[in-house]
Amino acid sequence: xxxxxxxxxxxxxxxxxxxxxxxxxxxxxxxxxxxxxxxxxxxxxxxxxxxxxxxxxxxxxxxxxxxxxxxxxxxxxxxxxxxxxxxxxxxxxxxxxxxxxxxxxxxxxxxxxxxxxxxxxxxxxxxxxxxxxxxx
Amino acid sequence: xxxxxxxxxxxxxxxxxxxxxxxxxxxxxxxxxxxxxxxxxxxxxxxxxxxxxxxxxxxxxxxxxxxxxxxxxxxxxxxxxxxxxxxxxxxx
Lengths: 136, 92
Prior knowledge:
InterPro entries (chain A): Ferritin-like (IPR012347), Spore_coat_CotF-like (IPR012851)
Protein name (chain A): Spore coat protein F-like protein YraF
Order of helices and strands of chain A: HHH
Distance between the termini of chain B: 49 Å
Number of helices of chain A: 3
Distance between the termini of chain A: 32 Å
Number of strands of chain A: 0
Number of strands of chain B: 2
Shape of chain A: flat
Helix content of chain B: 40-55%
Strand order of the largest sheet of chain B: 1-2
Family (chain A): Belongs to the CotF family.
Pfam families (chain A): Coat_F
Subcellular location (chain A): Spore coat
Oligomer: heterodimer
Shape of chain B: extended
């Protein structure tokens, strides 16, 4: 396993400059992912509810929709309080958007992992090798 | 078993889902499963304790949501006994 840095070398994942504000940047990214999942969940559940007639299914989906809306609100309020999300200060939100996009592009251009990550040798066997390919 | 009329159809608790309802549950169950794995695994990466606590709350809610969805998905027209391992063999 060799780690080769893509040229030209501007910085690598060991450069201490990358640790600057790293926890805040990381948490902001995770919170944004969490918020988007909550939002997508509300939309998916509402869409499923309008496609369903079974009273049992509707009851479950309706309660999950309520729960999802409440969770979305909690995440939004947390993100606003932590200054990770600025729904009313659009210039600040614009700056955050651009900075996190730039930072993520920088990370994506780094060589973080070895070329071979199959790791198959770490497992004792192929689970179904006794079955034979003709039955697979 | 509670029975009540809805339109012309007699509906009871164990009624088989319509195919399109089963597909909605397929999508909801897989979405919830993915969200659960993300909220669980990301707790190992976050620094902020409040964010972690909120993710743990999502994990608890998702566990209940998945149990409820699984129970209803069991009435899908294509439901089948669930084996212990995946039905298709894993070969390299």
